[in-house]
Design goal:
Among the domains are: 53 residues, no CATH class; 135 residues, Histidine kinase-like ATPase, C-terminal domain (Heat Shock Protein 90). The chain has 8 helices and 8 strands, in the order βββαααααβαββαββα. β4, α6 and β5 form a beta-alpha-beta unit. The longest helix has 73 residues. The radius of gyration is 51 Å and the shape is rod-shaped. The chain starts with 26 loop residues before the first strand and ends with a helix.
Length: 371
């Protein structure tokens, strides 16, 4: 006996409780002792010629050692797993952060914001992609700035052209009304006086013919003056001007029009002119192209928005096709509305008529004020 941990001394009866059969390498037995179960292993030395080496361990110490080892293994596995997860998350963050930055910047560019720039994280393919993306956004920003400047200049030019056109129409209409109409009226009165004073004159029939021509010319001048710039639009407002426009249009083309105008008060002059011109162009298109039997016009105000709807029961048309003169007319209508931050929407299909929806805000700022 070399060593033992029994408190009362080594129990000699353990010697006979475990032995090795001839030909076996070792034998292990579980032995009950006063101090508990003991795992005893016997190993023959030189096939038992020299003797037998035996070693025993208490079952409690084995279980305690096994429990300690198991706990250490579990703790090691948990620590290794946590470390692996943290390393994986860190590596994933490091590897995906440049890609996420590129994705976020791309989404911003898709929405029209060309200010985002992507940081170059490494000298690799993703870094080269970031540099290329930054160059692209800088070029897009420069191009977008030029486009906006050109759009501003185009709108300013278009606004000045329309304003100048309306002023010139107003001047010509006033000249026709104040000068030409008065001259023709004086001519008619003079011809009538000549007819009265020259009852026996041989030229009375010619004077009558001249008076008829002068009267017809006066009517045409009056009609031309109204088309150029109806004075009632400046004097009485949009409602009266549209009612007069529709009345003359019905008399000329014999197409009934249902008109409903719901404006409790006058709106700004540029807005009145835009809506009047758009509806005037729409009625012209109906007369020339629609082959309609009837039409309707609705103009109303909702809060800070003026809405107008013009409908007809004509043959309709393809809104996506180039319709020549009609296409130019529709383009002019849209440009008038856009200058006042409004919109013109067109719905039409073959044999189902056409509907035009106009929306223009009442409170609009001039383009120069927005720059």
């Amino acid at each position: 006996m070399i060593a033992h941990t029994f408190e009362g001394g080594f129990p000699l009866d353990l010697l006979a409780l475990n032995s090795v059969q001839p030909g076996k390498h070792h034998h292990t037995a579980l032995i009950q002792t006063d101090e508990g179960l003991v795992w005893d292993t016997a190993v023959p030395i030189l096939d038992g010629k020299v003797g037998t080496a035996r070693i025993g361990l208490s079952d409690a110490s084995v279980r305690a050692a096994l429990s300690t080892l198991t706990a250490q293994l579990i703790l090691t596995i948990v620590l290794v797993s946590i470390t692996g997860v943290l390393v994986a998350v860190l590596l994933t963050w490091i590897l995906t952060r440049p890609i996420i930055s590129l994705a976020n910047a791309t989404q911003a560019v898709a929405k029209g914001d060309f200010s985002p720039r992507v940081q170059r994280w490494a000298n690799d393919e993703i870094g080269d992609l970031a540099e290329a993306f930054n160059s692209m956004t800088e070029e897009l920003a420069r191009t977008d700035g030029l486009r906006k400047e050109r759009e501003v200049l185009r709108r300013q030019l278009l606004e000045k052209v329309i304003t100048t056109q309306e002023d010139e129409r107003r001047r010509i209409a006033r000249e026709l009304h104040d000068s030409t109409s008065q001259n023709l009226t004086s001519l008619i009165v003079g011809l009538r006086v000549m007819e009265t004073n020259c009852v026996q004159c041989a030229s009375i029939s010619k004077a009558t013919d001249l008076r008829d021509v002068a009267s017809k010319t006066l009517d045409e001048v009056h009609d031309l003056s109204m088309r150029l710039r109806p004075r009632v639009l400046d004097d009485l407002g949009l409602s009266a001007a549209l009612e007069r426009l529709v009345s003359e249009w019905q008399a000329r083309y014999k197409i009934p029009v249902d008109v409903a105008i719901q404006l409790s008060e006058r709106i700004p002059g540029d807005l009145e002119t835009a809506i009047y011109r758009i509806i005037q162009e729409t009625l012209t298109n109906i007369a020339r192209h629609a082959q309609a039997k009837s039409a309707s016009i609705l103009v109303e105000r909702h809060g800070d928005m003026v809405r107008a709807i013009v409908e007809d029961d004509g043959i309709g048309f393809d809104t996506n096709a180039n319709q020549g003169e009609r296409h130019l007319g529709l383009l002019g209508m849209r440009e008038r509305a856009e200058l006042l931050n409004g919109t013109v929407a067109i719905e039409s299909s073959s044999e189902h008529g056409t509907s035009i929806f106009i929306e223009i805000p009442v409170q609009n700022e001039k383009l120069e004020a927005s720059l």
